[in-house]
Write a structure and sequence with these properties.
Helix content is 51%, strand content 17%. The protein has a five-stranded mixed sheet with strand order 2-4-5-7-6, with helices on one face. Strands 1-3 form a two-stranded antiparallel sheet. Helix 4 crosses helix 5 and helix 4 crosses helix 6. It starts with a helix and ends in a 5-residue tail after the last strand.
Length: 236
């Protein structure tokens, strides 16, 4: 009973963390659309764009709830079968996340650079991959809040090595303190003031459930880099 209560507590905290961003975006976009429609004349094209963003974020929130519900109803399937549920193009996953986060990138003055010479397809749960990528991108942008705008850079890359697809998210923030690095994936440990410390542990759990891994390191020239590895789709 205690174990079940602990699991429910972690699930509730995880849902609160994962749903906060898309629901905040839905609210911001719908409020923007209301203001645009109230103008004389109304700015219809911009309002449509804002509502399109709201719809996309609402769908993401629904997918998060659906995936977590599946984890509760079929936990063994979620752990053992996630890697065989679908095929994900890692570069496309990055592009989807960048499309959703375009307003956030503009607001923060961050211009992401995507390096993907060829398609890299992995066996993975598409919703879980989107969730991981979204978290990594948001964390990278938040890490650069204290950096002068001209120095902010977000470098994304996709490749393959040792039978795995490799996706990296590298920022130009202050990096990770040496004493924090070993604890980065511990639940409720956060290096950000006001952070819940749940995003990275959830992402690591998702990656491991798909037969992959998520690691973090400091870049030699400054900033942090997170690396997601997932099993490559076998070439027919």
């Amino acid at each position: 009973q205690v174990a079940r209560l602990n699991t429910l507590g972690e699930l509730a905290a995880g849902m609160a963390h994962e749903l906060n961003q898309p629901l905040t975006a839905v609210l911001a976009n719908t409020q923007a659309a209301q203001r645009l429609l109230a103008n004389d004349p109304p700015e219809l094209d911009t309002a449509r764009s804002a509502m399109t963003q709201a719809v996309a974020q609402a769908r993401r929130a629904a997918e998060v709830v659906g995936r977590l519900r599946t984890a509760v109803e079929r936990p063994k399937h979620q752990v053992d079968g996630a890697a065989s549920e679908g095929v994900v193009d890692l570069a496309e996953a990055l592009r989807r996340a960048l499309h959703l986060l375009e307003p956030e990138c503009q607001r923060r003055g961050v211009g992401p650079a995507l390096q993907a010479a060829e398609a890299v397809r992995v066996h993975a749960d598409p919703v879980a991959v989107d969730q991981i990528v979204h978290n990594l991108l948001m964390n990278a942008m938040q890490a650069m809040e204290g950096v002068d705008a001209p120095r902010r850079a977000l470098t994304l890359s996709v490749g393959a090595a040792d039978g795995q697809g490799v996706l990296t998210v590298a920022d130009r923030g202050p990096g990770i303190a040496p004493e924090a690095l070993p604890r980065l994936f511990e639940p409720f440990f956060s290096t950000r003031e006001g952070g819940l410390g749940l995003g990275l542990p959830l992402c690591e759990t998702l990656a491991q459930g798909m037969g992959g891994s998520l690691t973090a390191a400091n870049r030699p020239d400054g900033g942090a880099v997170f690396t997601l590895r997932l099993p490559l789709k076998a070439t027919p």
